[in-house]
Design brief:
The complex is a heterodimer of chains A (about 170) and B (about 775). With about 170 residues, chain A is of the alpha+beta class. Chain A contains seven helices and six strands. The termini of chain B are far apart. Classes of the chains: A alpha+beta (about 170), B mainly alpha (about 775). Chain B: InterPro entries: ARM-type_fold (IPR016024), CBP80 (IPR027159), MIF4G-like_typ-2 (IPR015174), MIF4G-like_typ-3 (IPR003890).
Chain lengths: ~170, ~775
């Protein structure tokens, strides 16, 4: 045990900043505008969070697929599927919570930016799930990005909502 | 100038300068508009100018890069050489600092870092910083470790390795100056290698040599715990080639005229620190090869497996991964910009090194998913140019996907390499190849969905497609109404749909007769398999929609589960019913078992018993079963470690509290007040101690269950207790052993003959014993 402590001292006393780089696991620029609390509190929570937001999912991607993929970086505690507020069906995002932060970090490093259901998915730190956050915030009930989208995306309900209404 | 502004300037500058110095030093050697030589010369000039004010910082940075950036070894030895030529004293101080650092590393069991330091020191001979005879003297002390008595073999191994592995860099120079001494060292080494114990598991020689190869290792995939022998063969060949080594980049050659004018330093006599109880040496390494000179006939030839170039390239590529594992894009870029691209088949080396890490024992140095992400980044940077292992398959697609979906990556590689598509159809479905394909397809299905797999698998392969993962509810059909418990099942279904409470459920279940006994004892819940059957079948069926639905069901009716599964038989039966319902959906079984362990509906031993039960015998070699077993073991191990840590932390808190009290000047001899302070913590420690003991006994019990099946009762008991005495972290040791056993068991050629035979177990046990003995 003594040796472990000395070893840690040696390692921390002599590292190089180029080797400390961990850009995939760093906080992104995004901050949830609906967060209740100070910026400081939000960032504190983000830095110790075990929960990831996962975006750009297909509407048809299941919890099982997500569990299999995200299980590669560690034991998944819980998955909460994002739902359309009106239809209560999947609307292309979810939250993945791990038991250990290290496992979430590995997901950010190695699963973020890879494919699921042939779509490049995106993960980001989340301050923690709260009831109500499983719903899309777009006016039509889905995610905001699907309100104004101009392109056709078969996995996400086709055209964006505003386009559909035209 | 007085006061604040002046002060501020002084405190902010030094750290900025240190950062700048570190950045300058770390970045030398990267892509630049100027040549490496002129960059080195420029940097040497800057550092020389900064020496008067920042000498200790520069020393620290240089020592750190020597330890942490071994892939740039010769760049930094050249830099030190230039500095030494300009400032002899600095050179001396650097050497002293390096020796101090080396001693520290050895003391705290940082053997990988120590190896890089030794290599750095030896390359400093090439830069005229260190005198060759003193380096030879250090190596003499290293090799004489082999004469020590009563030390672990792995200790001797490491010192021999440290000597041999430096020779590609400095062999030529040392032999020119001290050939007799080097010859003597080599001869001592040879006799050590002859007498040291070798372990190997002559694994699966699956990769059949379908091409004629003169080399004995050609196209063979096997594990050797004789990495030293491989290096020895490489050094012997190097010597035969008169120490000509052409791969290593040596910037110091360009500065020869400057460097040979420099005065050299003598290494102080270095005695390897003695072996202590706490010394932990590196595990023997595995040499893994998958390519040879016949691969990629169009491109540059792959250095032979006994060439020293192969060793150097592999070392450097491993170091690059070690430096940049957190940054997958950077890692891929750094790997692909390894120098010598047009002379060596770099892409093949990269792929081989990645697989070598994945196959490392007991486990890869980094999480498996890192390697898949890295392969994907490599493919992005070099689309279409990664090597094809087997004609007809796009390696970049299949490899990434196979690893991404599979649990035991290396086994898949093993089978993949001999994979001839039509083979698995004509043969028995139980044959390894067919099983392999089925398991791969099942894993692929987990990441997509059943219909997709059916759609993409060619018709001729459809027999290997996975089952549709639907739940099987025995009370579902009207035609089953004669089954015992059918009406209760219907009742339960309605009740649960109407949001019944646990009490209401208990009430309904009261009416279920117990096929095991004559009089129904409904006071307690003695084991009633029919009750369990009806309840679990119905609930799981109702909650079948998704994982979340099933988890909610487990949570809502936790009380009922706990009561029904109170006894060991109850736990076992719950697991059996889960299997019956979900046997088409192994992923669901795995997550349910995980949840039930975590919510203490079943315990780890029950899961082990269930896995080894006769009902599961035909599924025994399926991956999901072992996935569950390993996950269970992991949870058990994590649990034990967690409680251990809690106990240590609480003890530390108590110690700090005592220390604080002792250091107080307060002479108040009130024993009672200090007892009162200690009270709660001491109670906590006692409780945690009990928790640790009970967790450890549960862990031991789990392994006993497993090994009883594998090797019989009597043997198991003594094996487990012997393992406990061998290694502190029994959990890890036994997990490792189990992985081996499972792998050998699953994929030996004639499964039936070797399954559970005493011979197999003794063989495996012997191997494991040897392995432990290395560390003893």
């Amino acid at each position: 045990k003594e040796k472990e402590k000395e070893k840690e001292k040696m390692c921390s006393g002599g590292t190089l900043s180029i080797l400390r780089s961990d850009s995939y696991a760093d906080l992104s620029q995004y901050r949830d505008q609906h967060f209740r609390g100070t910026r400081y509190e939000q960032e504190r929570l983000l830095r110790k969070s075990c929960t990831l937001y996962v975006g750009n999912l297909s509407f048809y991607t299941t919890e099982e697929q997500i569990h299999e993929l995200f299980g590669k970086s560690g034991d998944v505690k819980k998955i909460i599927m994002g739902l359309d507020k009106v239809k209560k069906t999947a609307c292309g995002f979810c939250f993945v919570e791990y038991y250990a932060r290290g496992d979430a970090e590995n997901a950010m490093r190695y699963i973020n930016g890879t494919r699921l259901d042939d779509r490049i998915i995106r993960t980001d730190w989340d301050a923690g799930f709260k009831e109500g956050r499983q719903y899309g915030r777009g006016r039509s009930g889905g995610q905001v990005r699907d309100e104004y989208r101009q392109d056709y995306d078969a996995g996400r309900g086709g055209y964006g909502k505003t386009v559909q209404c035209q | 100038e007085t006061g604040q502004p002046h002060k501020r300037r002084r405190t902010s500058e030094p750290s900025e300068i240190e950062e700048r110095l570190e950045s300058l030093i770390c970045r030398v050697g990267e892509k630049s508009t100027s040549s490496l030589e002129s960059n080195l010369e420029g940097l040497a000039g800057v550092l020389e100018a900064d020496l008067p004010n920042y000498k200790s910082k520069i020393l620290r940075i240089l020592c750190t890069v020597a330890r942490l950036l071994p892939e740039k070894l010769t760049i930094y030895t050249t830099l030190v050489g230039l500095l030494n030529a300009r400032n002899y004293n600095f050179g001396g101080e650097f050497v002293e600092a390096m020796i101090r650092q080396l001693k520290e590393c050895l003391k705290v069991n940082m053997y990988n870092e120590a190896e890089y330091l030794v290599r750095f020191l030896s390359d400093l001979v090439n830069c005229h910083v260190i005198a060759a005879p003193s380096m030879v003297a250090m190596f003499e002390n290293f090799v004489s470790v082999t004469q020590e008595e009563d030390v672990p073999q792995v200790r001797c191994d490491w010192y021999v390795f440290a000597f041999l592995s430096s020779l590609p860099w400095v062999g030529k120079e040392l032999y020119e100056k001290k050939d007799a001494e080097i010859d003597r060292l080599l001869s001592h080494t040879e006799s050590y290698l002859k007498r040291r114990q070798k372990i190997h598991i002559p694994m699966l020689q699956v990769w059949t040599a379908d091409k004629p190869h003169p080399q004995e290792e050609a196209s063979r995939l096997y594990l050797l715990y004789t990495y030293l022998d491989c290096l020895w063969a490489q050094i012997q060949k190097l010597k035969k080639d008169r120490w000509q080594e052409r791969h290593i980049l040596r910037p110091y050659l360009a500065f020869d005229s400057i460097l040979c004018e420099a005065l050299q330093h003598n290494l102080p006599p270095f005695t390897p620190p003695p072996h202590t109880e706490g010394s932990v040496y590196p595990m023997p390494r595995v040499i893994f090869r998958m390519f040879d000179y016949t691969d990629d006939p169009e491109g540059p030839v792959m250095p032979g497996s006994h060439s020293v170039e192969r060793f150097v390239i592999e070392e450097n590529l491993h170091c690059i991964i070690k430096s940049h594992w957190k940054e997958r894009k950077t890692c891929a870029a750094q790997l692909l910009s390894y120098p010598g691209n047009n002379k060596i088949p770099l892409n093949y080396h990269i792929v081989e090194v990645i697989f070598a890490e994945l196959f490392q024992l007991p486990s890869p140095p980094h999480i498996e998913v890192m390697y898949t992400a890295l392969l994907i980044e490599l493919c992005k940077l070099q689309p279409g140019s990664l090597p094809q292992v087997n004609k007809g398959h796009l390696l970049e697609v299949i490899m990434c996907w196979v690893f991404f979906v599979c649990f035991f990556g290396w086994l898949f590689f093993v089978f993949f390499s001999s994979f001839d598509r039509s083979d698995c159809l004509t043969q028995d479905l139980e044959k390894p190849k067919s099983k392999f394909v089925r398991e791969v397809l099942e894993k692929c299905m987990r990441l997509s969905y059943h219909q997709r797999i059916i759609d993409i698998v060619p018709a001729s392969f459809s027999v290997l497609s996975p089952a549709n993962p639907v739940c099987i509810y025995k009370y579902g059909d009207e035609s089953n109404r004669s089954l015992p418990g059918y009406t209760v099942a219907l009742c339960l279904t309605i009740a649960i749909k109407n949001k019944a409470s646990n009490d209401e459920i208990f009430n309904i279940l009261k009416d279920v007769p117990n096929p095991n006994q004559d009089d129904d004892d409904d006071e307690g819940f003695t084991f009633n398999p029919l009750k369990i059957e009806v309840f679990v079948q119905t609930l799981l069926h109702l909650a079948a929609k998704s994982f979340s639905h099933s988890f909610s069901a487990l949570a809502k009716f936790h009380e009922v589960f706990k009561a029904l599964a109170e006894s060991d038989e109850g736990k076992l039966h719950v697991l059996r019913v889960v299997y019956e319902v979900w046997k088409n959906h192994p992923q669901m079984i795995a997550v349910l078992v995980d949840k039930m362990i975590r919510t203490q509906i079943v315990d780890c031993a029950a899961v082990a018993n269930w896995i080894f039960s006769s009902e599961l015998a035909h599924d025994f070699t399926r991956f999901y079963v072992w996935e569950i077993l390993h996950s269970t073991i992991r949870k058990m191990n994590k649990h034990v470690l967690k409680i251990h840590r809690e106990l240590e932390e609480t003890k530390a808190r108590l110690a700090r509290q005592h220390k604080r009290r002792d250091s107080d000047d307060d002479d108040d001899d009130d024993d009672r007040s200090s007892d009162r302070e200690d009270g709660p913590l001491e109670e906590q420690i006692e409780r945690l101690q009990e928790k640790v003991e009970s967790a450890q006994s549960e862990q031991k019990n789990l392994f006993l269950v497993i090994f009883q099946v594998i090797m019989g009762d009597v043997f198991a008991a003594s094996f487990v207790s012997w393992s406990c005495s061998c290694s502190e972290d029994m959990g890890r040791g036994l997990s490792f052993y189990l992985q081996h056993h499972q792998i050998i068991q699953q994929y030996m050629v004639t499964l039936e003959n070797l399954l559970f035979t005493a011979e197999l177990d003794h063989h495996i046990l012997a191997v494991f014993q040897q392995f432990c003995a290395l560390q003893a």
